[in-house]
Amino acid sequence: MATLHDGAPLRGKLFIVEGIDGSGKSTQLDLLHKWLVSRGYLVAFTEWNSSPVVKQTTKKGKDKRLLSSTSFSLIHAADLADRIEHQILPALRAGAIVLADRYIYTAFARDVARGVDREWVRKIYHFAVRPTVAFYFRVPLDESLQRILVGRPELKYYEAGLDVGLAEDAYESFRLFQGRILDEYEHIVDEFGLTVIDATGPLVQQQARVRKLIQAHLRGAQKVEHRPWREVLAKEGLHGRYLDAMTAPAGEDGR
Amino acid sequence: MTRVLSYGHPLPGLREKKLPGKLIVVEGTDGVGRSTQIALLREWLEANGYASVETGFTRSELAASGLKKAKRGHTMGDLTMNLFYATDFVDRLEKQIIPALRAGFVVLTDRYLYSLIARAQVRGVDPQWIRDVLGFALIPDVVFYLKIDLERLIPRVVNSRGFDYWESGMDFLKGDDIYENYARYQTALLNQFEAMAQEYHFHVVDANRSVPEVFADLRDAIQTIVDDMQGHAASGDMKPKKKKKNKAKARVDGTEEVI
Fold first, then answer.
1. What's the pTM value of the predicted model, to 2 decimals?
2. Which residue of B has its CA nearest to A56?
3. CATH node for B22-229
4. CB contact under 8 A, A81 and B91
5. Which is the CATH superfamily of the domain at A13-224?
6. What are the extents of the domains in chain B?
7. Which of A105, A113, A127 is nearest to A16 (CA)?
8. Looking at beta carbons, which residues of chain B come within 8 Å of A123?
9. Out of A175, A194, B160, B210, which could bridge A136 as a Cys pair, Cβ 3.0 to 4.6 Å?
10. B91 touches chain A (CB under 8 A)
11. Could you report the per-residue pLDDT of A23-65, keeping only the tens digit for each?
12. Testing the interface with B: which of A53, A55, A110, A121 to mutate, by most B Cβ within 10 A?
């Protein structure tokens, strides 16, 4: 089960994925999401840096390069705080399975790579719900870089870690910055007991392992009837023409 | 500031041990007259040759507009609000306050971390957590706490802006009687400030008195703090002129912040 920061149990389950850019964690979480929905579970999805109240400020800070290592850290903490208060906690109270693409360990790795104090950043996230299972997708730096940089994408200022001043060239800076983040993650894996998935293996095998590992935690999770009108359609010989239009935007269940 | 010290973990990248400017904090609850006093003090300092700047909540380039928008919608939870304010605070500290101190300015700040702590504690936020989050704050040269009784405060607030949603604790107190909630909320806040006075060595100023009386106290206390800046200040008449017209300059940004 997921627990509040003070150890109080919550009905729902919180599964989170972590890893450096290009580790394939989002792909795996998406596959898990679809599987859980198909099994009839009530699932909510949340991702890093997506609070409707906070994200415009973060975007402004990034676009205009206003963020220092400390303000970068605090604004991301505000973002998670809002999502915990308004999305994650209510869903967990309702017994849902919450899937989070990146969680507090992203801040612990990335913000420390930017120069903030290790202990301080752990303290500011003290409010965070403790996840049921935290997966870490481990991949060697060269492989993740190859996945990300193959098309020579344009790297953004903070994404490349150019604010840290490791190198002038964006690609070189990205390489060094991701290396630092990877080092931090390796400490975090032991410190918080993250569940390591070998992200170099075939995607199917990774997914099979993830599903096997969460299986044990699914008991008691809230189920929900998906498309409860199906029976009516079948019985009355209807096509659900207007239902299609109505449900199209919500087709991803909880996104 | 003579020495650069933080309450907790210092800001990464702040290397100096000393800064030539002075950091002066004016604290106190909503409506106590902080901005009036700051406007007067700023002009008095400048008239006496001390370069000064002022700053206050929700005036950061980074977070001001987002924070105001979020408050307007009344959509923020306690943790989010605290962290959003912390973001605004650190942005001003790094971009406004520290550069000004480095350049030898007297920085007048309208509220500081103490208001954030008081506000968080009244809402039941973990006292240690909020202190940890804001631990990067520099220890000021002086913290003036403008202390006022609730009975004196209420007429002033009614006479100026009226009761503000957040300043009345409407986000967490039960019931919709704003007067009742304002009184309860402000009483709780005043108690928090009272408790912090020792912890943070507040210089307590009785704000039940008139504007000129309060100003005189602040001016005299600041004089002793800026006295040792003579070497840094511009040349010219450095003797304080106590008989000056108390006419405040209009605030440049024209904003007024209430939390």
1. 0.85
2. B66
3. 3.40.50.300
4. no
5. P-loop containing nucleotide triphosphate hydrolases (3.40.50.300)
6. 22-229
7. A105
8. 129, 132-133
9. A194
10. yes
11. 999 999 999 999 999 999 999 999 999 999 999 999 999 999 9
12. A53
Among the partner-chain residues B69, B80, B136, the one whose CB lies closest to the CB of A70 is B136
| Rounded (5°) CA angle A24-A193-A214 | 60
B58 close to A (CB below 8 A)? no
State how far residue A219 is from chain B, nearest Cα, in angstroms. 31
A97-101 and A13-18 beta bridge pairing:
parallel
3-state SS class at B119: helix
The b-or-e profile of A139-166 (16+ CB within 10 A means b, else e) is bebeebbeebeeeeeebeebbbbbbbeb
Give dist(CA B39, CA B139) in Å, integer: 22
Shortest Cα distance, chain B CAs vs residue A183, angstroms: 20
Alpha carbon B161 to chain centroid distance?
Answer: 19
Q: Where are the beta strands (DSSP E) in B193-259?
A: 203-206
**A4 and chain B in contact, CB less than 8 A:** no
ipTM over 0.95: no
> B110-161: per-residue pLDDT in tens?
999 999 999 999 999 999 999 999 999 999 999 999 999 999 998 888 877 7
pLDDT tens by residue, B80-89: 999 999 999 9
Residue B243 in this model has a pLDDT that exceeds 80: no
